[in-house]
Design a protein that fits this description.
With 77 residues, this protein is α+β, with helices and mostly antiparallel strands. It is built from three helices and four strands. Helix 1 packs across helix 2.
Length: 77
């Protein structure tokens, strides 16, 4: 069965993103279904010329997660 691909374009910032039905989580190697919320956010940002900002924000959060424990400790000091 062919997987459905959806392509979103932010022409102002020359950004194109193709979303499959599933993706491989690079941390676990597991196949994960693309959620409706992800699809809605990609669609919203492609329509508002902010798609690259969504992608970079997601990468930033993924690569630099906030350590909630240190935030709690620092707030108590």
């Amino acid at each position: 069965m062919m997987e459905k691909l959806r392509t979103y374009t932010d022409y102002a910032n020359k950004t194109v993103l193709t979303i499959p039905d599933h993706f491989i989580d690079v941390k676990t190697g597991n196949s994960v279904k693309v959620s409706q919320k992800i699809q809605e956010q990609v669609d919203y940002h492609s329509n508002n010329n902010t798609l690259i900002h969504l992608v970079l924000s997601a990468l930033n959060s993924y690569l630099h997660p906030k350590n909630m424990n240190s935030d709690i400790i620092l707030s108590e000091i």
